[in-house]
Amino acid sequence: MGDRRVNAAVIGVGLLGEQHAAQYVANSKADLVLVHDLNADRARAVGEALGCRWTTDLADVAASDAEIVSIATPDHLHHEAAIRMLEARKHLLVEKPLATKTAEANEIATRSREKGLKVTVNLGNRWNGQFQSIHGAVQDGEIGDPVYAYCRCSDTIWVPTQMLSWAGRSGPQWFLFAHTMDLLRWFLGQEAKDVYAVGSKKILAERGIDAFDAIQAVVNFERTFVTFETSWIIPESWPAIVEFEITMNGSEGRLGFDGIRQGFELSSDKVGKHMFARPSLWSYFKLPDSWWGSLHDLVDAVIEDREPAIPVEDGAAVTAMIEATERSIAEGRKVEIPRA
Ligand SMILES: NC(=O)c1ccc[n+]([C@@H]2O[C@H](COP(=O)([O-])OP(=O)(O)OC[C@H]3O[C@@H](n4cnc5c(N)ncnc54)[C@H](O)[C@@H]3O)[C@@H](O)[C@H]2O)c1
């Protein structure tokens, strides 16, 4: 097993896919063999920069010697590529969300289990030390039984209007609840039962983007209720791209995470100044190596022939939560969340 290596390919080498490709190059047990993008200039640029073959034809990826394929296309296109690659017997790392329909997410899970292929989702927050501390504290009962929680994760309006060309095919629910609903489900170790949500579409719609401006969703888990909030209209002058906040109250304690003021902050009595500088948008999107736990875990899982740390069913459960949230907004009532 010591010398076993795996070949990898990436489908969709935009902002995130290029970083997937670079992470395979950095992994001492993996070889990046091929990158794919519908945009030939993009595929060529990344392939040449990282020294691997490139293609615009998905059939080349299916026929390649890659054992693992990353899928980093826009949110609503994950399912199509995933099913095609499972047919070609590839193990998959799918960007979050696993899919944007519960039926599609369940199909990916079922097909991969039938074929004995490994599928995991790129949920780097599970490798963030702060979130691992929260998970440990909750699981160890340090706050007693969790009673209720609040979780807000939002982006500035720069994300839907300038960063994502496909924002109108997604929304803050797919882009951000995909992280936070996974995190809270993981912290609590409970399944989500039902959701009541409200949302508005006005400010982005006026800019020609068919996406929610903001959503608040109250999710009942088995023993804990959680309010999730997300927005894509935080002003650009806000000193970070993301605002992220969690509080959880239990029968014997409370915990919180404050990810609101991200950036460089200096307070100096010596020179009598206080300054705050946000990181450049570009450097923010070069995610740190520690973020890439799902990718490196999948390489190890294939080599060791074990289950990935994040099973495909976790991705399907979160898709079910988000789709039920959309239905609740549309129907103005509480909606049950189907079990993945
Ligand atoms: N894990 C995270 O924290 C994180 C952060 C940002 C984005 N993402 C996810 O990564 C995915 C990609 O986001 P992005 O910001 O890189 O978007 P992007 O627009 O920068 O890149 C998408 C790329 O896919 C290509 N593409 C489009 N349709 C395709 C198809 N059918 N086949 C092959 N290539 C295709 C585009 O040409 C583009 O190069 C999304 O699902 C997004 O939600 C995850």
Distance between the termini: 34 Å
Overall, the morphology is globular
Number of helices: 12
Q: Outline the biggest β-sheet.
A: 7 strands, mixed
Integer tally of domains: 2
Sequence of secondary-structure elements: EHEHEHEHEHEHEHHEHEEEEEEHHHE
Q: Structural class, from helix and strand content?
A: alpha/beta
What hetero molecules are in the model?
Answer: nicotinamide-adenine-dinucleotide
Plain-language structure description:
The protein has two domains: 6-124 and 288-311, NAD(P)-binding Rossmann-like Domain (Rossmann fold, 3-Layer(aba) Sandwich), CATH 3.40.50.720; 126-285 and 319-336, 2-Layer Sandwich (Dihydrodipicolinate Reductase, domain 2), CATH 3.30.360. The chain has twelve helices and 15 strands. It has helices at 15-26, 40-50, 58-63, 78-87, 102-115, 129-139, 158-163, 172-188, 203-206, 281-284, 293-304, 312-331, and strands at residues 6-11, 30-36, 53-55, 68-71, 91-95, 119-122, 146-155, 192-200, 214-221, 225-231, 242-250, 253-258, 264-268, 273-277, 335-336. A seven-stranded mixed beta sheet has the order 12-11-7-10-9-8-15. A six-stranded parallel beta sheet has the order 3-2-1-4-5-6, with helices on both faces. The longest helix has 20 residues, at 312-331. The two termini are 34 Å apart. Nicotinamide-adenine-dinucleotide binds at residues 11-17, 36-39, 42, 72-75, 77, 95-96, 122, 124, 165, 175.
